[in-house]
Known about the structure:
The chain is an alpha+beta fold. The chain is about 20% helix and about 35% strand. The protein has six helices and twelve strands. It has helices spanning about 20-35, 45-55, 60-70, 125-130, 180-185, 205-210, and strands at about 75, 80-85, 95, 110-120, 140-150, 150-160, 190-200, 215-225, 230-240, 245, 250-255, 260-265. The strands form four sheets. It has a six-stranded antiparallel β-sheet with strand order 4-5-6-9-8-7. A hairpin with a 2-residue loop joins strand 5 and strand 6 (about 150-160). Helix 1 (about 20-35) packs across helix 3 (about 60-70) and helix 2 (about 45-55) crosses helix 3.
Amino acid sequence: MANRSQTSLPPHTQIAPVVPLYHRVYTALRQQLIDGAFAPGKPLPGELKLAKDHAVGRVTLRRALQQLESEGLIVRRPGAGTFPAKPRMPQRSRAQLHGWLEPVVSVADGTGVQDFSFDMVQAPVEASEALELTPGAYVLRIRRTRLVDGEPVIFATIYIPEHYAHLFSAETMDKRTTTEVLEASGVPLATIDQSLSARVCDGIVAGCLGLTIGTALIFVRRTLRDIDGHPVEYFESYYRPDRYEYRQRLSRIDDTDTERGGWLAVSATGQG
Length: 272
């Protein structure tokens, strides 16, 4: 008789990584430090207070503090306490997400690409659905890590339908995005469907961005369509939130302009 205690998972099932408790505390404190929540030159609350605030034991808290110290975000002085390190983030350039969830970083001074790879694979479920392909269809998968000031900040995976795969190579994508390659090849682009959410990184993404597994990142998905409504590209990217911020300006619409009035999103520019 078969062992019914064994469980088989359907193809493409993804098991969400379990985030260690200390890492949740580390993530929360790290964001507070980046946001300037702790006064410069003054110690952070004591370990007992921090442990109580985050509902964890002191051992868990100390592990989170060790991680912050190893990244140079805090300075621990025996007998004096734990202090925020001198801020570094404002001195570094921050790339911007201009407009409505702009997912493409333009190739400009201070940016570059590493770990560029091209391979034909069977489309995973999300890509297959976005590209409206039959299950098991092959696609061109492009992976790359975007650098800003020599530091990895974006990990992107792009899926291209097989009949467009011949357009892409390391040469055609030199200093160009996949969108620019499609347009230069005469593909008439018309619409983009995009979404932004948060997602923790797995081992592949963490390794490419130099982060700890389970770090929360900005996650952008995009489906690009031609003028006939056919999908020509599906794009997934992870952005380090400590190097990106999203800004948007909204303009008020009077009730006389539309049936309900409200707010209209307009293009925005920002400064690092």
